[in-house]
């Protein structure tokens, strides 16, 4: 674990036998009928054990070289947050990963342009494998990698880790939203940057999790546009916590965190209203300063800031650039939802998955590659001229 320590919680630590842990991959397929033999809560069935985080990490390790690269990315991102590096942090990539081939193709393209803009932009690829839903819907690669409702989470976690490792090997840091605290343990060592989403910024559990992460964390403002919850999240995450969690071995554990000072607000608008304009940015700055915090803000050019029209992301990004060029150095970064091809498509029924268009989002609409490439080059150029 990174900044977290764990103490395993067992009823009797003297008799606890890690090798007999029912939560190991090999011994633990619990079918519906198996589960029915176990007294359980009606309406909640433990269907299948998943590998522990340490098992998956052993199978898909981060070697010394890669760990060094991730540390370097994290240091650079932290330096941007600290005001010691004046590059713009750009979190860019698909709204969600649903197709590994398309994700790899996107990463390869991003890795090609990264050296051309590196002097002014710090690119981080969105590799979002969990999706928070307003009501119900596909919850992301980690939950349902086959897109057919089979919810093969063991495969989902494995594919997510594999993909993040490959993308990091291309020289790109990886960003993701950490939604389900249990899944964080499987992925956190690979992350350059993490988001806590608009629906969970107010959650104590997510703030505790963020306080133990080794990477920088952006807290989105609430879905109602409220910034106060993100400011409070920054304060909460900066503190050390002790909380219930899952240890690396897969057993319940008392987790102790050190506190994370590398956090910031992400403005994403709310209730259909943007909040990237200079007045909203100034209001957020005042809120942060009022809480005794150094104002550091990222603007999410999508979501309510684009009024959910992906084409508007360009105008949001250009506006943020202008504010930054006019001297607002609290604006440390932007987020873009972008895929190989623009727009979005509905996820079809399982038997029609072959009809999916390549490189088109199945969640929120995204910018296409050409526009993304143009925007990144333009941003680097403008910042160079400043
Ligand atoms: O970024 C993605 C979506 O805005 C978020 O997951 C909510 O999606 P939904 O409203 O389609 O459920
Ligand atoms: C779900 C996302 O954003 P938000 O939490 O702002 O809705 C996202 O960025 O994918």
UniProtKB/TrEMBL annotation:
Superkingdom classification of source: Bacteria
Pathway(s) the chain acts in: Metabolic intermediate biosynthesis; chorismate biosynthesis; chorismate from D-erythrose 4-phosphate and phosphoenolpyruvate: step 1/7
Family: Belongs to the class-I DAHP synthase family.
Pfam family, one: DAHP_synth_1
Protein name, entry field: Phospho-2-dehydro-3-deoxyheptonate aldolase
Disordered as annotated region, ranges: 32-54
Protein EC: 2.5.1.54
Organism placement in taxonomy: Bacteria, Pseudomonadati, Pseudomonadota, Gammaproteobacteria, Oceanospirillales
GO molecular function, one term: 3-deoxy-7-phosphoheptulonate synthase activity
